[in-house]
Amino acid sequence: MRDFFQHALDPNIHLRRRLFQLLSTIALTEFIIVTLYTAILNTSPVGVAVMLFGTFLFAMTVSLTFKSGRMRLGATISGLLYFSIYPLTFFSSGGIYGGGPPVAAFALIYVFLVTQNWERIASLALCVLVDGCCWLAAYLHPELLTKRTVAMEHAESFLAVLLVTLLICTLFAFVAEVYAEENRIVQRQKKQIEDLNRAQKRFFSSMSHEIRTPVNAIIGFNESTLRENISEEVRENAQNIEVASKLLLHTINEILDMSRLETGGMEIVCADYRTTAMLSDIVSMVWLRAQEKGLEFVIRVDPAMPASLHGDEVRIKQVLLNVVSNAVKYTREGSVTLAISGRYDEQGVFYAVYDVTDTGIGIREEDIPQLFSAFQRVDEQSTHAIEGTGLGLSIVKQLLDLMGGSVTVTSEYGKGSNFHIEIPQQVVDPTPVGEVNLRRTPRDETACRENAFAAPKLNILAVDDTPMNLKVLAKLLKDTGVSLDTAMSGAEALQRTAEKRYDLILMDHQMPEMDGIECMHRIRKQENGLNRDSRIVCLTANVGKDMERLYMQEGFDGYLEKPIRGKVLEDEIMRLAPDLN
Ligand code: ADP
Hints:
- The protein is α/β, with parallel strands linked by helices.
- Helix content is 57%, strand content 14%.
- It has 3 domains: 2-189, no CATH class; 272-446, Heat Shock Protein 90 (2-Layer Sandwich), CATH 3.30.565.10; 449-580, 3-Layer(aba) Sandwich (Rossmann fold), CATH 3.40.50.2300.
- It is built from 17 helices and 12 strands.
- Helix 15 links the parallel strand 10 (504-507) and strand 11 (535-540).
């Protein structure tokens, strides 16, 4: 019995099969009761024999259906079998005055629930026909009906009540249990998805950390090679390594952003920013690439643009950079235009409007809806030779959704495309920017550059458990003349800071035993410490605004991301140690 109920409620078994089992069991119970009843109260031995045979046939059909798994055929046959015995029950129980009608109702319900498709319609039609014939025959030939006794009337009325109650209660209990089970499954799956999301987030952030560490070494050593007096061939090789590492880093960042967006870990952090400074950053990042491809890069800034806005500058830049870089990437000749303007909507909300137009390969109209789906590149035939992950525009769309913005694309295949972006912003300073001439000088992206300063009196301590990272720092700072000490663990850092005063400490975060945050706190509280007020900068492969906020809240004086660029490192040193000499 327990097995039976477990089977009937087992969510791994198809609902139709479970329902068939349940209803067939009720039907079989009814068969047995009616057979017993016929044997006790009915005088006809033929009736008893037919009922016995019918019960046996029905039980066999149901059992064979389960064994063979041919539910559709089995359910139809057992439904019809049920009804083929019905006339006997009807006539032997006194027609419409006896227990026949409730049995007919149950038989119809049984057939309706266990059969499907055309078999259901055909079986129901046949059953209604059988019912109709019984009713008509009883009406025309009442002599065919078994004479009813008072005992029969009482017994059948009692059996009818039992049957109807059993049917309705079992069905309700079954539906309630199925609903509860489905609910349990949904809850279990919800928890599994949450766990999976958390694991995915952990995986991506640890992968990002693990990949950044060697990339830090590659970029750092390469940068220091580029600063040396080297042959043209070596320089070319080093420049190619630099381009490849940047691409690798860009891909890691895209994957990390995608994972953050999908797990809801991406935050929009708004602050005031100067419009022209933000645009100038974008121009300087893309201008060189456009120039290298021989493309004209046109920037049109509406003179009425407010001078200062409030929004997430980093994410706006990311959106625009993605779209402008794509325009450059997918344009072979002609121009890329970035037009910036603003508008107020009816509620007085200001929208910054960015139009990126190119004369590139264009996008087919039917491809436009898939443009913003993750991992999807459209028009593979034309784009397969151009590097890309298919993540960029999906990130753009999701970031715009987070910021309440929008993007629309119009394109003529083979002629060019236009990306129209609108982002709501608060106006901080409405003074018009006027005629803007954004400096078209590339950012100092190439590593081939001189050190920005020389500071032989500056004492720096670098703490990192990866020796390669310490070597990179030493190489990058070699020509500045700073005195650089290193420590490979928190404990060693505490020992060094107890012995010597440092102007600046560059601290890694993830280290075994004592991590960078704990080490920083202990340096600040060190008894008779020489470095309690030294500037401590977190130099880490855990990147992102959320991480930066965490480090600054913990009490670091600065935050630097790995892989570290020479220029960024020097700028930070100059910021925190202005009296270098
Ligand atoms: P990818 O890394 O492949 O560039 P994106 O998500 O940035 O990924 O872009 C998705 C696809 O949209 C690209 O593979 C390309 O087919 C198409 N696409 C994006 N921008 C342009 C454009 N300016 N001109 C033509 N096709 C574009």
